[in-house]
Specification:
It is a single chain. By secondary structure, the protein is an all-alpha fold. Helix content is about 80%, strand content about 0%. The chain contains ten helices and no strands. Helix 5 runs antiparallel to helix 10 and helix 6 crosses helix 8. The N terminus is likely disordered.
């Protein structure tokens, strides 16, 4: 009779598999953000993750499958960060919530500029992957942001400007310095990804949006 794997064996092998998958996804996020879906190859992703091509193929049946999994992962992290922040602000007035959510978005953008680079890469193609990105991930964030800032405008908490434009001010001003970090280092002489620079940038964006 064939022997069965013990629960202990399952517990000892699973973390290794999860770690391998996580390394592949991290490498995929980096390369898809740097070179686009078309420009990145699974061979390059496997090399950056320090795994073999067959091992990558074992975890992800195609490059399309890998791209979707990588994007799901990074947007999942953003949603988790924003949700945790909102849940920690129960009972707080909406203006204060908006200020703190914008700051949280800036902190996340500094830590994960790849998210914005991937969106920019897909906007160049404007195809089915962009449709999926918008419908599955971007539209819910957009609608929540527009709804919140529309209420703030109606109450007179912020200037009377279209909420859609506010959304793009946040996503543009909040993330661009981190996406263009190599340029910023050369122009301004500092690393925008350092903690102090991120805090200053969050102060600047929230001041521009909400006033001092």
């Amino acid at each position: 009779m064939a022997s069965q794997a013990s629960p202990t064996a399952a517990r000892t092998t699973r973390p290794s598999a999860d770690s391998t998958r996580d390394r592949i996804l991290a490498a995929a996020v980096d390369l898809f953000s740097e070179r686009s879906f078309e420009g990145a190859t699974t061979r390059e992703i496997a090399a950056r993750a320090n795994v073999t091509q067959p091992l990558l193929n074992y975890h992800f049946r195609s490059k399309e499958h890998l791209w979707h999994a990588a994007v799901e992962g990074i947007f999942g992290e953003l949603t988790q960060a924003l949700t945790a922040r909102i849940e920690g602000l129960r009972g707080v007035d909406e203006l204060s919530v908006a200020k703190l959510i914008v700051r949280e978005f800036i902190y996340f953008s500094a830590a994960h500029p790849q998210l914005h680079r991937i969106i920019m890469q897909e906007c160049k193609v404007d195809g089915a992957r962009m449709d999926w990105l918008v419908d599955r991930h971007i539209r819910p964030l957009y609608e929540q942001t527009v709804s919140l800032f529309t209420r703030l405008v109606e109450r007179g908490d912020i200037p009377d400007v279209p909420a859609t434009h506010i959304y793009y001010v946040i996503t543009g001003a909040g993330a661009t310095m981190f996406v263009l970090a190599p340029e910023c280092r050369r122009l301004a002489g500092f690393d925008p990804l350092e903690h102090e620079a991120v805090e200053v940038h969050a102060d600047v964006v929230t001041t521009l949006l909400f006033g001092s």
